[in-house]
Design a protein that fits this description.
Blueprint (H helix, E strand, L loop, with lengths): L18 H5 L2 H4 L4 H21 L4 H14 L10 H15 L6 H18 L4
Helix pairs in contact: 3-4, 3-5, 3-6, 4-5, 5-6
Length: 125
């Protein structure tokens, strides 16, 4: 018996998520505007990137966390779930997946530090 070889091809034409799931997110159904959703998604990824750098994680762990973050919010609403808590959880889980685990306490402390830094430097006059 001959073995069949299967090729996996990923491109923009062959997206993992179907178009209808990308276009009609739970956040949009809960009344969040598309622009606000995109801004929050970008902010969440920035949060993950900053946390990963401070935790000295490899870039692949940060990228994995960002993918987990994006995928989570294609099935759950940004209105009902805190993007900060989800970002923390995704980074903690991604560090474990990529075999660079960090203690929960360290992850929480780093994200608390980032939030304090952002609040001090981004305060409105």
């Amino acid at each position: 018996m001959g073995e069949e070889k299967v090729k996996a091809v990923l491109s923009l034409d062959n997206c993992i998520l179907p178009d209808e799931k990308i276009k009609s997110t739970p956040s949009k159904a809960d009344g969040l505007s598309v622009d606000d959703e995109v801004d929050i998604r970008i902010l969440g990824c920035d949060f993950i990137q900053s946390g990963g750098i401070l935790l000295e994680l490899p870039q692949v762990a940060m990228a994995t966390a960002q993918i987990l973050f994006q995928r989570f919010f294609y099935s759950k609403s940004l209105v009902k779930h805190s993007y900060e808590h989800v970002a923390m959880s995704c980074l903690f889980l991604a560090a474990k997946i990529e075999e660079s685990p960090r203690r929960v306490r360290d992850v929480i402390n780093v994200f608390h530090h980032i939030k304090q830094f952002w609040n001090e430097n981004c305060s409105l006059p």
